[in-house]
Amino acid sequence: MGYKIYFLFVLFGFGVNVSGYSQNMAIVIKDDETKEVLIGADIVTENGIGYTTNEIGIFELNSPTFPIKLKITYIGYQDLVITFQTEKDILKELYLKPTQFALDLVTVTGTKYEQNISRSTVTVDILKPDLLRSVNANSSDDILNKVPGVQVLDGQANIRGGSGYSYGAGSRVMILIDDIPALQPDAGFPNWGDIPVENLSQIEILKGASSTLYGSAALNGIINYRSSYATSKPETRVSTSATVFLSPKDPDKKWWKDTLRYESNASFVHKQKFGKLDFIASGFYNRLRGYNQFTDENRGRVNLNLRYRFSDRLILGFNSIVNISTSNSFFLWSNPGSGVMKPLSGTVSDRKAKRFYFDPSLTYTDKYNNRHKLLLRSIIIDNTNNTNQSNNSFNNYGEYQFQKNFAKADLVLTSGIVGTWNRTNSQILGDTTYFSKSSAVYFNLDKKFGSKLTIAAGMRYEHVVHNSPINVFDPKGYKSDGQLISRLSANYQLAEYTFLRASWGQGYRFPTLTERFVTTTFGAFSIFSNPALNPEYGWSSELAIKQGFSLAGFKGFIDFSTFISEYQDMIEFTFVFEPTRIGFQPQNIGNTRISGYELGVVGQAKIFGLPINIFGGYTYINPIYKNYNTSEQVRNSVSEPQNILKYRSKHQFKMDCEAKFWKMKWGVSVQRVSHVINIDKAFESVPPISFDLFGIAQYRDINNHGYTLVDSRLGIDIGKCTVTALISNILNQEYTLRPALVEAPRNIALRLDWKIN
Questions:
Q1: Strands 173-177, 221-227: parallel, antiparallel or unpaired by DSSP?
Q2: Same domain, 242 and 342
């Protein structure tokens, strides 16, 4: 039924515009400074006929009547109004001048088409590659902890407290690479090393439920890593850096004596156009000798992005990523004293990983300027492990997307059909083969009413199937579930730079194969499967105001939002103490609510003539169990007698400032995160003797004030080279994000960026 509805939308999109298609005149729109083509620029005639530039910046005038007056608009650029008196006056190239105001940032994640961030109906934060290079972000998750309301906890992404710590299984934040899901399907866990940070145009972080557009695992938000395009002039960048980890504040905890603990890496990216072919190649190598004992890594990654333009309407793309690594790590420290950076016996894991991405795509713009896009991704994963946790999987994703811009009605329709298929063989899943698949149909409408009001609405139906050798539900081990979800949001411009927005969206997440069937051990603990696990449901709402300003040399915007998220049948790993088994099991622990508010600021200031970029904010959350008073199991699972969800910090303040003077840049970053009140009680009081076996309770009693991180950096441009010196954790704070694993002590780094051409 869902597919029939979808195809009606497609037919409707094809049938709306029946204008002729005879004499066409092609015009390309470019950036006035860089001369790069502008994709998705809007062109409207004085008669209300609308056009949009395609993937190579071209639009075609259909049988124009002269004189013809055009108004050309593009987010982040000044409007251009031009009149052609005759056909001979038509220019083949038109140039738009960029603006410099912070509200002109562009996002695509919330709508699947480019949109001014000030007009977005949901909260979106955008990070540019200059910041990644400035802070020496060697992995794609390094930078996220600088974003207000975002925290990466031992590899698990968390937006506004929507997730805690789930032992590497199940994510409520969808990770995208170029608009395509990149979570490992069997575990629902991101591999941050797959993402080519050396070749990004920007990172977009969308906060709130986004399941209608992106499906299961987007319950809490989205992080979209968008690759850059090839440029008209060939461009080559080479980067290298070295980081040295210094001694911890307590010298007794330093386990290395005559050796150096360090991290070094090198990367390159080359972009070039060869006629109709856009070519990008990049590579990255990282070598880590970790400050924690037995936390070393060697990782190499290569990335290839190709786009071939058969015509101005038909573009074929192919992207690929190969990521190969060897590494080791441990789960629990030896003790909370001198052994805080050493592993507990039996918890060290040695891994070898091979991961391959293959992403063909096809984009076609028909003669009515409807956009058809086919997105495909195949991921091959082979992980070997010395702790009986090896796995391999083959994953396929496919999406057909149709988009029509009704220019006269100021309406954009986006619809699509999605299918995924996964085959997994894993030792933690009983060393046998499991299959999963899902299918979905969605549509989204973005409608402008006049020049001030934008309303977005969407729906999605998703159906998920697991096939397993375990015949819990039927002889074939079959379990399926389907869910219809929706969203509604609005943005209203109250004044020239004042935007009010409100949003409400439903979320849905089917448990992963790992959550349902995992059986493994780590140290003294075991994890047990729960095939009867039910899906999570939820909704998220937000009321916010974005205020742009330009005052006394400071221009930018302040964004204040209040939010509430509720989850039904939330999945948490819960400690089980029974005569036949002791350990953790994924369980539906009941209903939860997370409410709070967030204040963010982005802008540029001039102090004594020096330009300063500012990015940061404060986030407060109140995460609670709705059934805390009625569920003894919930009360017995938390470490403190307080109704607070596990592994959450209620307060986060983050700020990054960077000043430019002469050929130098100086930046300072500050993070203040409050104490995590509740963790799993079993970590602090290990059953059946209820003893602080690992010293976690003792450590948390002493270190119960949260942490403050201060980083600084100084860069200088020397011709085509930029040399940056960095010092991180200046105060040499000792802190943990999850139990029994300390984070990096004070460290210093030197980075070299060289733009060859």
A1: parallel
A2: yes
